[in-house]
């Protein structure tokens, strides 16, 4: 079984979520189930069924996070020393050569990818096109809406 790479910051984010689920969300949902159970007939008790569904989601997420974290390989990107070459963990500044729009992404493990936070999975098409390139290089990749052309304007490694 291969170990999935994850950044130190991503590992800390997932551990924080796991701690919140165990210490806050789980006890709250147990209390909500007890309160709903006290209302009587469970067959027609929507609060009870909603609380049980939420409990199922929380327990599933806890199990998933524990499994992911137990097999993940934490990589401290500040120690990689790859210079201006793009490797796992790099924060990359890009400029769209067609529109001139600037964007910044960090290449992270599949477990922690979140496009809203500009964290792209190492297995994504854009990350695969970036790996091995250096600052100043131009590249293209096929996005869902067509071929995109970018120039790498900056590469840095921050913890």
From TrEMBL:
Function: Necessary for efficient RNA polymerase transcription elongation past template-encoded arresting sites. The arresting sites in DNA have the property of trapping a certain fraction of elongating RNA polymerases that pass through, resulting in locked ternary complexes. Cleavage of the nascent transcript by cleavage factors such as GreA or GreB allows the resumption of elongation from the new 3'terminus. GreA releases sequences of 2 to 3 nucleotides.
PROSITE patterns the UniProt entry points to: GREAB_1
Keywords for the protein's UniProt record, in alphabetical order: DNA-binding, Elongation factor, Protein biosynthesis, Transcription, Transcription regulation
Pfam families per the UniProt record, alphabetical: GreA_GreB, GreA_GreB_N
SUPFAM superfamilies in UniProt: FKBP-like (SSF54534), GreA transcript cleavage protein, N-terminal domain (SSF46557)
InterPro entries (alphabetical): GreA/GreB_C_sf, TF_GreA/GreB_CS, Tscrpt_elong_fac_GreA, Tscrpt_elong_fac_GreA/B, Tscrpt_elong_fac_GreA/B_C, Tscrpt_elong_fac_GreA/B_fam, Tscrpt_elong_fac_GreA/B_N, Tscrpt_elong_fac_GreA/B_N_sf
Residues of the Transcription elongation factor GreA/GreB C-terminal domain: 84-157
Stored HAMAP family: GreA_GreB (MF_00105)
Protein family membership: Belongs to the GreA/GreB family.
Any GO molecular function: translation elongation factor activity
GO biological process: DNA-templated transcription elongation; regulation of DNA-templated transcription elongation
First and last residue of the signal peptide: none
Membrane-crossing residue ranges in chain numbering: none
Ranges where the Transcription elongation factor GreA/GreB N-terminal domain occurs: 5-74
Organism domain of life: Bacteria
UniProt name for this protein: Transcription elongation factor GreA
PANTHER family for the chain: TRANSCRIPTION ELONGATION FACTOR GREA
């Amino acid at each position: 079984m291969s170990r999935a790479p994850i950044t130190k910051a991503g590992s800390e984010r997932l551990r924080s979520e796991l701690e919140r689920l165990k210490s806050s969300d789980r006890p709250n949902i147990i209390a909500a189930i007890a309160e709903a159970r006290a209302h009587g007939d469970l067959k027609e008790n929507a609060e009870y069924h909603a609380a049980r569904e939420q409990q199922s989601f929380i327990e599933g997420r806890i199990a998933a996070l524990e499994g992911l974290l137990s097999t993940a390989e934490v990589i401290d990107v500040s120690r990689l020393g790859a210079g201006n070459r793009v490797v796992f963990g790099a924060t990359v500044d890009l400029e769209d050569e067609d529109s001139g729009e600037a964007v910044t992404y960090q290449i992270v493990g599949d477990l922690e990818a979140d496009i809203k936070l500009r964290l792209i999975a190492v297995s994504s098409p854009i990350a695969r096109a970036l790996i091995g390139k250096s600052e100043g290089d131009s590249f293209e990749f096929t996005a869902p809406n067509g071929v995109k052309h970018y120039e790498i304007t900056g590469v840095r490694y921050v913890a």
